[in-house]
Amino acid sequence: MYDVAIIGAGVVGGMLARTLAAYDLKICILEKESDVGMGATRANSGIAHAGYDAEEGSLKAKLNVQGSRMMEQITKELGVPYRRNGSLVIGFGDEDRESIEKLYARGLKNGVEELRVIDGEEARRLEPGLADGVTCALYAPTAAIVCPYELAVAAVGNAMDNGAELLLDFEAGHIEKKEGYYEICAAACSQGGCGSPAEAEREDSLQGKEPSGASAFPQMPQPRKVCARYVVNAAGIYADEVAKLAGDGSIQIHPRRGEYLLLDRECGDVVSHTIFRTPSKKGKGILITPTVDGNILVGPTSVDGEDKEDKATTQQGLAEITARARENVKDIPLRKVITSFTGLRAAGNTGDFIINSPSQGFVNVAGIESPGLTAAPAIGEYVKDMLAGQGLELRRKPDYQPCRRPVYAFRNASVEEKNEMIRRDRAYGRVVCRCETVTEGEIVAAIRQNPPARDLDGIKRRTRAQMGRCQGGFCMPYLAEILSREMGISYEEITKSGRGSEINVCKTKE
Ligand SMILES: Cc1cc2nc3c(=O)[nH]c(=O)nc-3n(C[C@H](O)[C@H](O)[C@H](O)COP(=O)(O)OP(=O)(O)OC[C@H]3O[C@@H](n4cnc5c(N)ncnc54)[C@H](O)[C@@H]3O)c2cc1C
């Protein structure tokens, strides 16, 4: 029996797990995908917003500002890239000036520090590439950039290092309230029926016996049913469906698509601040921002959809990004695009974050659209307090370890540090991904660390191997070889991103 089961290993579930792992609790995180951070957390702008955007008095506003204040310390403890680069909301003319003044006033009410309205000249001094027509800007020095998926990986990893358990490929498909606890069954199990012979066999693994072998990482057990006294629904875009499983039909979530273009690191100095356009009736507009890894990100579009799995990019979306970005910043080298992608915002039916408890011991954390990445650390604290209010006992662990050793980035090390790393482990002397200078030592560390990289995309998100100009064209076979060796699985079992994405069908030659 777990004290707390968290459904969803995005940045919100991960941050909550990390927060709770500081206490003497038995915690599990249930994730339907083959890795953590695979929902909205994987595809967003990566901005730790200052907090002037959300309506004053809303949960979004409160948790955004708190999260923004917490982010620097947390990223330091978790070894996640973070940079306080500041943001500019730029305006062209009187109407935009009025909107900027409103944002400024809202920011002050929300408690955002150091906020200033500046004129076009000062804005161009800060950011020389801005369009000539910029007449004013809202300058927020406390805005920052962070790597969202690394934050989720590190938060879950730190929670695991402190005793939390992660169950991957576990899609909560059935929830039943029992006397003083909840029983959660995985979707495959709820279709086949809990208690079936196949299920009983899987259940054995929960008791510490050998797993059935269905896992892509044989040493990870795969129970299909868990029981917990408290359940937190942090299932992102599917949080409405998970709430329904627990008998709560009050939440509706639809996907709002956001497409992006990512530019090569060669263009990394195009802007140093995050540049937003003044919001209009058409939405917040296209932003241009550096990423913590030195690329430039342009986007996102904002289009309401219905399909919660539709992450395709469209010609129309990418054309819109290109046109709008050029209005804001001069000379964006849009021919240096290395990839495009789409993220799905979990747009809820209230306009605010939906954090509530429809029944004793069950908490919804739903509708966590932007600024959910920024707010995640504060959401963790908020939900922890809610659970305590419902009777969860919180006794601080004496041996809690808040820090996590990051996968060491060889490319950022000095020559002396590199030599020392190679002296300690020769695998750091073998560069596998040439575009991003990622060594075998880093890849092996990512496979061995909590939560382990189990497939090619997992390695990518933890080390940046395959994220450069060639997008894995060169290094993918070497990564597959290392995965096969480290995980003790055959080449045919290596996947790009979990079951069903095997990259090798069969041997063509002996
Ligand atoms: C285009 C875009 C831009 C954004 N930009 C920013 C930004 O710059 N700054 C900012 O602060 N925020 C931003 N956000 C918002 C931010 O990305 C989200 O608020 C945040 O990632 C939400 O995290 P989450 O953990 O709630 O959801 P997710 O990351 O979606 O995680 C939910 C997890 O639950 C799992 N799951 C779902 N159903 C089940 C089930 N039945 N059983 C088990 N697991 C399940 C999913 O697989 C997923 O891993 C942006 C979002 C988008 C889409």
Brief summary of the model shown:
With 510 residues, the chain is of the alpha+beta class.
What does this structure look like?
By secondary structure, the chain is α+β, with helices and mostly antiparallel strands. The chain has three domains: 2-40 and 149-252 and 351-389, FAD/NAD(P)-binding domain; 82-145 and 255-344, 2-Layer Sandwich (D-Amino Acid Oxidase, Chain A, domain 2); 410-493, Arc Repressor Mutant, subunit A. It is built from 14 helices and 22 strands. It has helices at 11-20, 59-78, 94-110, 120-126, 148-161, 187-192, 197-206, 239-245, 315-328, 372-389, 415-424, 440-448, 456-463, 476-487; strands at residues 2-7, 27-30, 47-48, 82-83, 87-91, 116-119, 136-140, 144-146, 165-167, 172-177, 182-186, 225-233, 254-263, 274-277, 287-290, 296-299, 303-304, 337-347, 354-359, 362-366, 431-433, 438-439. The strands form five sheets. Strands 1, 2, 9, 10, 11, 12, 19 and 20 form an eight-stranded mixed β-sheet that branches. The radius of gyration is 23 Å and the shape is globular. The termini are far apart. The site of flavin-adenine dinucleotide has 40 residues, from helix 1, strand 18 and helix 10.
- What does the average pLDDT come to? 91
| CATH homology-level superfamily of the largest domain | FAD/NAD(P)-binding domain
CATH architecture designation of the largest domain: 3-Layer(bba) Sandwich
**Straight-line N-to-C gap:** 49 Å
Please provide the count of β strands.
Answer: 22
The value of Rg in angstroms is 23 Å
Catalogue the ligands: flavin-adenine dinucleotide
Fraction of residues in β-strands: 15-25%
Q: What is the CATH first-level class name of the largest domain?
A: Alpha Beta
Which structural class best describes the helix and strand composition? alpha+beta
The total tally of domains equals: 3
Tell the overall outline.
Answer: globular
Biggest sheet layout: 8 strands, mixed
Residues in helix, %: 25-40%
Number of helices: 14
What is CATH's topology name of the largest domain? FAD/NAD(P)-binding domain
Low-confidence stretches: 195-219
